[in-house]
């Protein structure tokens, strides 16, 4: 809470009571943000949710201070950067000769071998202004891989997991019939805490769909759709809320994905997120499509077993940095870029950006 003034936070709000689920969700308002003015956090307790929201605001705040980055302006070709290195992260319609255009770059540390390399600043900063920052417009900007923690290794691990998660969900979105073939059968879940969580949600009138998203890294990545089990017109929020998470522990991935979906519900219910436009609230919803989605969650095929999500090499392993890097290496990922962000005047806080060129970002279709 002592960080509020330095971050420009003017309001911290508990919005848990706007929904019936009871998962603690907190919103933080930062009016002079150059990205989202409203950040959200969730957790098992109100304290955890508040810390989560404040740290999310801190991530964006430090990443939007473009003047604090020691950037250089050069072309990829002049820096001897292969044309295909960041190809997965190009915007639609990016000029084919971008490799020869001068753009801004920042230096990064490759966590796989300790070498130094250059990463486009556009993939690091969050100063989403109009007009855009100089040299922007080539790459698809997002907050993927941006993480904050009071322990740097935790921030780095979180950033890596987010890159893995977004890549897996992007792959799932490109698979025809994904939701008909990759549903996890809840009857196979043997984790007591997850089973209790699902029973609590069911008792509150919500249905949960869980899918395994395909990750080439072999890390359990879960997509969750959370929806009320009532006719659309009677629901507090008729549309499904979506969440996703990746973890070496499949049970943790499921729990985090459900929490993310619960947070997404409250973002829509509160109406306070500035990245949720009028399109999210259609005046004439497609009730037939909404009913079909409810049937998919309630009655759709459940072909995947929870017991097969965990791999022998990750059995019982926590989401620490060494096992994550070992998995990336075994998957032939050789380029994991770490950019440390300056956090003055705050001390004891680590904010990092992880950029993994081989993993694709999750973009709006």
From TrEMBL:
Record PROSITE patterns: YCAO
UniProt keyword Cell inner membrane present: no
Keywords attached to this entry: Ribonucleoprotein, Ribosomal protein
GO cellular component terms attached to this protein's record: ribosome
Stored Gene3D superfamilies: 3.30.160.660
Domain YcaO: 41-365
Protein name: Ribosomal protein S12 methylthiotransferase accessory factor
